[in-house]
Design brief:
Length: 103
């Protein structure tokens, strides 16, 4: 069985900035995990995801039940190593190609 790369994004709670949906409002952060296969293609995708994160493209702030919180943005991430596409996990034969197209 294939091994996984597990990416951790630690998003601290803070206040939103100009350009966010509600500037100056506090929002709740959290720890977000993403998984990639530990192979050449997976490592290449991890580097592209890192660049997207550094450019502020990975997460967005959304209002959820009256609370502002950090959520995944438009770049698809696999948040589980198991469960298939329906559980946002693997197996999903097309994921790496799809995410690289988005990136």
């Amino acid at each position: 069985s294939q091994t996984a790369l597990r990416l951790l994004f630690k998003m601290p709670s803070s206040c939103s900035k100009v350009g966010d949906p509600r500037p100056g409002q506090p929002y709740k952060g959290g720890d977000f995990y993403a998984f990639l296969p530990d192979n050449k293609e997976g490592r290449k995708t991890a580097m592209l995801l890192k660049k997207a994160f550094e450019h502020g493209l990975t997460f967005q702030i959304k209002s959820c039940n009256g609370e502002e919180r950090v959520t995944w943005g438009l770049i698809p991430h696999k948040t589980s190593w198991h469960g298939g596409k329906a559980s946002n996990g693997y197996p999903d034969a097309h994921y790496l190609r799809e995410v690289c197209t988005v990136l």
